[in-house]
Amino acid sequence: MTALQRVTQWNAFSRVWHIFDATWQNPFDSAKLITKYLKGTYKPLYHPLNDCGDMVVVINSKDVALPGDEWRKRAYFHHTGYPGGASWTLAWQLHEKDPTMILRKAVYSSMKGNLQRRYTMQRLLIYPDENVPVDILENITNQIRGSRKVPRTHISYGEQSKTFPRILDFPEDYVLK
């Protein structure tokens, strides 16, 4: 085996650590993207029986954006396993209890047909904000780009925003309610 073949094989079967920023991202579109890296389907030697998936670290899961009225209308099912243990929870209530759960459930359901999805989900680390342990940040070597671009706010422009043309000048005694 040549040195090039050896390095190619190491790269194919090594676990690469990816980071994904979930700010303003649709969790269902993001789940398809994250699943590709968790299962390793982007690798040239992918096979469903090979365990060649990568580690994915998701940050800012509390800032996900569901489309339309999904926050009020989408309900998640949970069953405790006991008689009468079935319950339905609305998306906004689930997000208040655990800001990582909506993205976790979206990724889990996007892996339908994968017999190893419980073990594959162990390679997914989700954090509600940007506070990630240092030992995990040291391993990250790649960034997964989201499908939606996060717009900049007016405040983020700083001193530049004072030079923008004004559409309307409010009177000095105007009070916002």
Automatic annotation (TrEMBL):
Keyword Zinc applies = no
A GO BP annotation: negative regulation of translation
A single GO CC term for this protein reads:
mitochondrial large ribosomal subunit
Q: Which UniProt keywords apply?
A: Ribonucleoprotein, Ribosomal protein
Asked if the record carries the keyword Ribosomal protein, the reply is: yes
Record GO terms (molecular function):
mRNA binding; structural constituent of ribosome
The UniProt entry, under SUPFAM superfamilies, shows: Ribosomal protein L13
The organism's superkingdom is given as Eukaryota
User: Which family would the database say this protein is a member of?
Assistant: Belongs to the universal ribosomal protein uL13 family.
Mind telling me what this protein is named? 39S ribosomal protein L13, mitochondrial
Organism of derivation: Rhynocoris fuscipes
The organism's lineage is: Eukaryota, Metazoa, Ecdysozoa, Arthropoda, Hexapoda
